[in-house]
Amino acid sequence: MRSLLLLASAAALIAAPATAMQHDAHAAHKAQDAIAAAVAAPTRTATNTPRDIYRHPAETLAFFGVKPGDKVVELWPGGGWYTEILAPLAKSGGGTLYVAAPWERGLNRIKEWQGAKPDVYGAVKLAEFPNAGTNPKVPDGSADVVLTFRNVHNWRSGGAENTANAFKQIFAMLKPGGTLGVAEHRLDEKDDSAKEEKSGYLKESTVIALAEAAGFKLAGRSEINANPKDTKDYPKGVWTLPPNLAEGETDRAKYVAIGESDRMTLKFVKPAS
Questions:
Q1: Is the pLDDT of residue 21 over 80?
Q2: Burial letters for 165-192: b for 16+ Cβ neighbours within 10 Å, e otherwise?
Q3: Cα separation of 110 and 120, whole Å?
Q4: For helices 2-39 and 83-93, what crossing angle results, to 10°?
Q5: pTM of the entire structure?
Q6: How far apart are CA 37 and CA 212, in angstroms?
Q7: Quick one: which H or E segment has residue 7?
Q8: What is the DSSP letter of 215?
C-alpha cells in the first residue's frame, strides 16, 4: 500500500509541472492571438501599417510579455504609432493603458483621438512623465509593463540627471516583478561614445547601465528590430533614415532602401523582492 501511495504522489508531482506548463503555453498563445488582432485593428492609420516591417509590433510586444489584461504604460507616445495597437489590445482583455508624456504637449495627439474615437481611446488614461508632482501620474507600484520606443536618446539629451530621474520614476511605477521594455536606436559598441551625444543612437551598454542604476535587472535581448543595413554614420544622425528622411530628396532612394534604424530590443524586470 505504501508503495502505491508513493507512486501516486510521484505521479502527481510529475503531472503538476506539466499542467502548469500547458496552462502557461495556453495563456501565451491567447496573448499572441490578442496582439495579432490589435496589430490588424482597422482603426490603425493607413500610413502607419506599412512600417510594421521595420517595427515588428506583434513580435516585439510578445517578447516583452504584454498581455491584454495588463496595466500597460506607454511613455512618450509621440504620434501614437504604438498607441494605435496598445489601446485596442487593452480594451480586448479588460486591461488598462496609460500614456505618459510631458504635460500637456506630449499628449495632445492622444487627446484629439479621445475626442474623435472615444470607443477606441476613451478609456486611455493620461499622465505626466517625468512627473513633477502637480499633474496626474502613473501610481507607484501599479503597472505590469512599461514600454518606451525610441525615447531614451531624447531623455539623455536632457542631461544625466534627467535621464536617471526618468528611469527612477519608471522603476517606481512598476509592480515588483514588472517589466520594462525598451526599443532604441543602437550604436555599435565599438563606436566612439561621443556619437551618442547628437546622433540619436545609443549603445546597448549605455541603456543597460542606466536601467541597472535604477534597480532593474536585464531579463533578455532580442534582435527582432535589428537592421544590418544601417551604417549609423550619417551627417544628420538617425533622422536621416525613414520615417524622418532629414536630407529631403537628397539620396532619398538610398535611405529608403536602408529602411528604419537598427534597434536594440531589451527586456528588464523590477526584482520581486
A1: no
A2: bbbebbbbbbeeebbbbbbbbbbeeeee
A3: 11
A4: 140
A5: 0.91
A6: 34
A7: helix 2-39
A8: T
- Alpha-carbon Rg for the chain, nearest whole angstrom, is 21
Nearest CA among 31, 38, 20 for reference residue 66? 31
Pairwise CA distance, residues 45 & 20, whole Å: 39
Under a CB-based contact definition with an 8 Å cutoff, are residues 231 and 195 in contact? no
Phi, psi of 175 (to 5 degrees): -70, 155
In terms of CATH architecture, what is 2-269? 3-Layer(aba) Sandwich (3.40)
Residues 6+ apart with CB under 8 A from 153: 184, 185, 196, 200, 201, 202, 238
Residue 185 has pLDDT above 70, yes or no: yes
Residues of the chain above pLDDT 70, percent: 90
| Cβ neighbour number for residue 204 with a 10 Å cutoff | 18
- Evaluate whether 28 touches 64 at the Cβ level (below 8 Å): no
pLDDT at 219 over 70: yes
Gap between the Cα atoms of 17 and 102, Å rounded: 46
Q: Summarize the chain as % helix, strand, coil (round to 5).
A: 45, 20, 35
Identify the H or E element spanning 90: helix 83-93
Question: Per the structure block, which three cell numbers stand in for 105?
Answer: 504637449
Interhelix angle 204-213/160-173, rounded to 10 degrees, is 60
Q: Is the dihedral of CA 10, 11, 16, 22 positive or negative?
A: positive
